[in-house]
Structure formats: C-alpha cells, structure tokens
C-alpha cells in the first residue's frame, strides 16, 4: 500500500535540509550547521551565525552562490562609564531574511549583526553590545549597512518570514508583566523598517506564545498558551492590516510547539518527545509521523 504524501511546512523542510549530507553544502565550508532561510522562488539562503559566511542555494539545479564577505566597518565603542574605547570581542549574525525586491528585480538578504565589546585590560570585563543591520543585493553582489530600527527581532518565525516583498519578525517592548508584543517589518523595495502592533486578541502577553508564519500566502499568527500541558491553538491571518481568525484547534495533550502548516492546511506539531505530529483541522484527527527533529 502506497504511503500518503504530505506537503511539509517550510520550517520542517529547513530543519531536514540543514541535516542532510548534501554534497553541495561542503562548498559552504561551515564549521557548524548553517541556518536555512527562505524559500523564495525555489531558492534558499544559508547563513552561519558565527561567521561571515552566507550563500544562496537552488536545490533543484544544485547551483550554489557564495556571497562575498561584508566590507562594512565595525565602529569602535567608547564607554563613558569606563572612559575608554572598548575592544571588539565577538561578531555574530542572526535573524536573517531572504526575499525578492520586485521593484528593482533583485534578490536581497538582510541580517542583524550583534557586536560585543569588552575592556581588554580587565580580567573579567563586562560586555557591551551594539547592533548593525546589513543588506545584501544580488544585483550588486555586495553588502551595505542600513539604519538599525529601534526594535530588534527577539524571536524567529515558523519557517519563512517573507511575504510579497516584506519580511517580518516578532519583537517586544516593556518589562516583565508589562510586555507588549510587536511585529517588525522590512520592505525589500524601499528598504525601510516599520512596526506593526500585535492585536489585542492575543491576550496577556507573557501568558501566550505568538509565532509568526506564512499561511496561504499571507502573514499569520498562531497563538497558544505558554503554561498548559494540554495546548489549544488559534490561527489569525492579516490582510491589509486587518486580522481575521481562521480557526481554533481545541486542546491537544502532549503538544509543546507548532511547526507550521502544509499546503493543505494541515498543522504540523512537535510533542514532548520531539516527534512530529500531523493535525487535520477538518477531521480533528492527530497522526504521528515517522519524523524526529532531533
């Protein structure tokens, strides 16, 4: 009997691809497993958070475009408290996004750069942090620095965070018991950041998780409680700034995290054993798949 085929969500595909012994990936020459971003027009972006290495990969044609290293200067940091310039101790790259700029017919990669500075003369120096944002253009084959937004991404999305020329990240403001969730967006065409509110439907922010994802070509938010063993999920989708609730999935025992939606609207979930489950919203059936994400 032939097994049924499942359209896996992008986040799950990316996890699988990042672990496969693909010969093309050896050209990336990365010491650690790279993060996989995409997909856009069948292309994926690979990024090593600990180095300056990045690449665009076409799995179907096996073409592999190594991106040039960044030539952007890392500014010195003057500490008014210590009254001295600090030494750059570490550079890391994270929260990237990959998408297409239809206005200029160009593929672009955006990434956030975390800079750590220390006083090299101290035995146990206190680190100081700065942020930069870099944007790569395939047309010019170069990186450039763009102004950093007031908010930086604090959470990754479920798979691709790019929809119709706009990249999205979840961010937040405030302190404990006064957290406020926000959505940071970046327009690939005009290269500008914007801030969108997470609507009030979420409820009290620390009591709920909100994961951004792409659902049927639109930006979606899947909302679920943070402190319950039996977890229910609400899916909301936005169109022109208006949020609409798509459906609610009642309590599912043992599920700890959503992984994303397949093309048929099936929800993939991770359980407490790091195994993948498939939930059919139309039949309310839960199936265990022979996939482990460890």
UniProtKB/TrEMBL annotation:
Residue ranges of domain F-box associated beta-propeller type in the record: 30-286
Protein's UniProt name: F-box associated beta-propeller type 1 domain-containing protein
NCBIfam families: F_box_assoc_1
PANTHER family from the UniProt entry: BNACNNG10540D PROTEIN, F-BOX PROTEIN CPR30-LIKE
Signal sequence coordinates: none
Highest classification ranks of the organism: Eukaryota, Viridiplantae, Streptophyta, Embryophyta, Tracheophyta
Domain of life (superkingdom): Eukaryota
One Pfam family per UniProt: FBA_1
Source organism of the structure: Gossypium anomalum
InterPro entries documented for this protein: F-box-assoc_dom_typ1, F-box-assoc_interact_dom, SCF_F-box_component
